[in-house]
Amino acid sequence: MHVATASLAAAVSQAGGLGIIAALNFPTPAVLREEIRRCRRLTSKPFGVNITMLPSLVPPDYRGYAQAAIDEGVKVVETAGNSPGSIIAQLKDADVTVLHKCTNIRHAQSAAKLGVDFLSVDGFECAGHVGESDITSLVLLNKARQTLGVPFIASGGFADGWGMAAALCLGACGINMGTRFLCTQEAPVHPKLKHAIVQAWAALSTG
Hints:
Strand order of the largest sheet: 1-2-3-4-5-6-7
Structural class: alpha/beta
Distance between the termini: 12 Å
Oligomer: single chain
């Protein structure tokens, strides 16, 4: 979905969260630069950029997207998908805080060795990019608490303060929310989809 744009990111940041712009929503680093600037016009609060690194015969210009974020003063970059090793040094040299999403402990440990500042531990409930092991957040977060030496946030199935409290009890330092925000006025999503999400029950998922 083309949802994680400046309008939604700015609204999340204005409300006290950390809004995220998805770099690959934009065809080139230059277009991402313009979206970052648009977000700055909408909020004076911090926001971040996500760079998802996926297998591809012709990979996107990941370093170009990272440089666009750096040049525009973005201080938090969230990476996901494949190993972010190719852009870690570039980001760290620019004093950017790096958060990497992982769906299992092995990948989280590998990312920690690369020098990421935070990890996002994504349980099976996480929409859009489930892991290979189908481990639920309850199990995965508890294992992360026992194993990881890097601060982590929880992703997957969190939509309110009750879920956040549970994640904190399991050792996370925060939560990642996405699907919940699809229903907001700021999300560029068709009203019928928003209605379907609001009416959904526990067995349904955007995954």
